[in-house]
Amino acid sequence: MRIRASSASDIRRADVRLRVPLESSSIALLKELSESFGPSGFEREPAAIVKKAGERFADETLHDKLGSLVFKVRGKADIPRVLLAGHMDEVGFVVTGIEKESGYLTFSPLGGWFDQVLLGHRVVVRTRKGDATGIIASKPPHLLSPDEREKVVKLDSMFIDIGASSRESAEKDYGVRIGDPVAPLSPFLLQKGNRVAMGKAFDDRIGTFVGLEVLRRLKTQRIQHPNSLFVAATVQEEVGLRGAQTVANLVEPDVAVALEVDIAGDVPGIKPNEAPARMGKGPSILTFDATMIPNQALKSFVIETAEKHRVPYQLSVVTRGGTDAGRFHVSRAGCPSTVISVPTRHIHSHSAVADLADVENAIKLVLALVERLDSKTVQNFTRI
After folding, report:
1. pLDDT of 4-28, one tens digit each?
2. Which whole number is the average pLDDT over 167-177?
3. What is the helix, strand, coil percentage profile of the chain, to 5?
4. In this predicted model, what pLDDT tens digit does every residue of 291-309 receive, in sequence order?
5. Does position 220 have pLDDT exceeding 60, yes or no?
6. Residue ranges of domains in the chain, CATH in brackets
7. How far apart are CA 229 and CA 75, in angstroms?
8. Which pLDDT belongs to residue 269?
9. Is 43 known to be catalytic?
10. How far is Cα 157 from Cα 98, in angstroms, rounded to an integer?
11. Angle at the Cα of 25 (from 23 to 29), degrees rounded to 5?
12. Segments of 80-156 assigned E as strands
């Protein structure tokens, strides 16, 4: 019997319902990663979670001197060296001052924040005496003049209220010091039959989770791969792709895939050409962003792999912004690189929304790639 092969359009229109849900232990790991405290430069807590989850499935655990972790899995051949990487830092803040009379904290962003999403939200201030819960606030609206009510409140007019009554109280009772990190306080939750996830730091704990799941399934399902695989969790991506640079120096990859979240464009006011990916329609494959034009042969290979394995996918553009692949692709003499992402709503805020079907399909696509990236294939990416 001859079965008609599905076309790309058939696959991309396919029903992407999650037929095999993520295991409960895997969802628990995603929850733990999401809720962990780890702004850029302060990733020690998520790093400990990542290390515990990944090292038992790795042949070797490596790290750079900036804080990134790398798990090595030996395959049938030493080369090519394949790098999968998600960043484990989140956008957050840092304390820049303590008001003398009130004890209010002034702060600056770590990573990109839109000021309008901040007011009224709770945060965690990590101090030498433990965690203090605070609220981002500003001048009460009751006291604003008519002109002030028409203006957007900027971050430099906001403060964090931890309940202190003075600078002395903030320092002695709460242990606050200039330079202390601050992260959003937001619980992870599931709804719609445990398919839709909400929480903080999905950018990029989801990408980190995808890498860990690929690592786990390779070992538990005894999947063979014709390469040496390196699964990384990088640091300080949100403040300049810094961990990507040190990881690239450590691993020296022949091909690299950044595991990320994409901007889901299914939000009112967004034009399709601005953010074409939609939540629930499969992982996205990057065509270009502000930091990288992907290797075109590799991009085509990823698309062909998705179609061959009947994984729904979307093509994406990010005209402003970038990923760790922006560093990977220019490491050493150059490294063919691409980005596979999970479309996510409301990133860089206290609460993002993602579909676990997209997460599962991203894992399937990355696993399929790892199984196919042999030396000849990778060499062809750069052959002229």
Report:
1. 333 333 334 333 444 446 888 999 9
2. 97
3. 30, 25, 45
4. 999 999 999 999 999 999 9
5. yes
6. 8-90+200-380 (3.40.630.10), 92-184 (2.40.30.40)
7. 7
8. 87
9. no
10. 14
11. 115
12. 81-87, 92-98, 105-110, 122-127, 130-137
* Exposure on the CB side of residue 256, measured as CA atoms within 13 A: 29
Output the CA angle 21-24-30, nearest 5 degrees. 95
Longest Cα–Cα distance of the chain, Å, equals 82
Q: Choose the weakest-confidence range: 8-17, 78-87, 130-139.
A: 8-17
* Cα 211-202-185 angle, rounded to 5 deg: 135
d(CA 345, CA 265): 8
For residue 201, which amino acid is it? A
Pairing, β 284-289 against β 314-318: parallel
pTM score: 0.91
Say what angle helices 24-35 and 44-54 make with each other, to 10 degrees: 160
Which of 237, 238, 260, 307 is the catalytic position? 237
Supply 158's token pair: 């906001």
DSSP state at residue 71: E
Q: HSE of 66 in the Cβ direction (CA atoms, 13 Å)?
A: 23
Gap between the Cα atoms of 200 and 349, Å rounded: 7
User: What is residue 108's predicted lDDT score, i.e. its pLDDT?
Assistant: 97
Q: How far apart are CA 122 and CA 185, in angstroms?
A: 5
Find all residues with CB under 8 Å of 63, minimum gap 6, and list them.
69, 70
Residue 188: how many other CB atoms lie within 10 Å: 20
Cα-flanking dihedrals φ and ψ of residue 188, to 5°? -85, 135
Q: Residue 159 — φ and ψ, nearest 5°?
A: -150, 165
Strand-pair partners of 182: 93, 125
